[in-house]
Amino acid sequence: MLKRRQFITTTTASLAALSLPLSAQTGSKLTLWGPPVTPSVLLAIAARDGKAKDIRPFAVQIWRSPDQLRAGLLNGDIAASIVPSYVAANLYNQGRKVKLFNIMSEGLNYIAAPATDGKPLVTSLAELATHSVVIPFKNDMPDLLLQILYKKAGLEFANIHYTATPPEALVMFLSGKVDCAMLPEPLLSLAQIKGKEKGREIVRALDVQQLWGEAFGIAPRVPIAGLLFTDDFIRDNQEFITALNDDLSAAVTWSKENPQETAALAAEYLPFPKKALAAAIPHSRFAAIPAASIDSELLNFYTELHALNAKITGGKVPDAGLFYR
């Protein structure tokens, strides 16, 4: 079993290796980027099986942190990437020439908690507010969602701990230094596996997507991430983008029908064991929904983010010009 320092070092090194610059890894190939979480496997499926690759071959690379993503988008190294949906709004409102193409996950965040004989430590948001919680990356999507949910419920957002990396959050939770953790997949599935190795039962105590739906009286989903293109990328790759749209829809269907094969492919890109990925995929809510088709839902989502912190969305709620049409 990996010790704390070994676990953090190994995982961080794996993420860094997956995030080498284009010139170091892919030569002259087009590159589509994704986050170190499960929806990126949809890009990998499309790169392997889809028709867009016949129009223009492309590689899939993984960015290791929100800061690396933002830097790449701002300096031009990244022109096409799955991003947290608020990043698209922020860049657009800064005057950057970008479009949000689609939504690729309807939510993959959960509250991890210990359980005794199958009974979770917490069973409601109100109970969670009485316990300590660790969240990776302050002011990233998991943190923002939980802040909004606490605010909507009239709960004090207190006893929250942040870490600079996801592995550190996992270690902090499993070591018992905090009671619960707000984790995206596949981190939560990995927490369950690591907890079992330690003789601890870890469960998905709260489904954040369900909480969001209940709080706002809508379907239990959160449009957390989607594929963003720069306007220059769109101009130069119209035929490719049309084919990619179909490829991603097919990838969602294939992933649901072939979860083990999907996990095996994901393990080639993400620094997680296949066992954790296989457990995570059914809870990752894969999608390939054109952003323009749910523009009202997205604008309402941005309104909530803006009300929490105007800086998150770049100072205002974006208009519908953000969405690819």
Would you give an account of this structure?
- By secondary structure, the protein is α/β, with parallel strands linked by helices.
- The chain has two domains: 4-106 and 223-322, Periplasmic binding protein-like II (D-Maltodextrin-Binding Protein, domain 2); 109-216, Periplasmic binding protein-like II (D-Maltodextrin-Binding Protein, domain 2), CATH 3.40.190.
- It contains 16 helices and 13 strands.
- The protein has helices at 4-18, 22-25, 40-49, 52-55, 66-75, 85-93, 125-128, 141-153, 166-174, 187-197, 208-216, 231-236, 238-257, 259-266, 274-280, 295-308; strands at 30-34, 58-62, 80-84, 98-100, 102-105, 109-116, 119-120, 133-136, 160-163, 180-184, 201-207, 225-230, 286-290.
- Strands 6, 7, 8, 9, 10 and 11 form a six-stranded mixed beta sheet that branches. Strands 3-12-4 form a three-stranded antiparallel beta sheet. It has a two-stranded parallel sheet with strand order 1-2.
- It starts with a helix and ends in a 17-residue tail after the last helix.
- Residues 1-27 have low confidence and may be disordered.
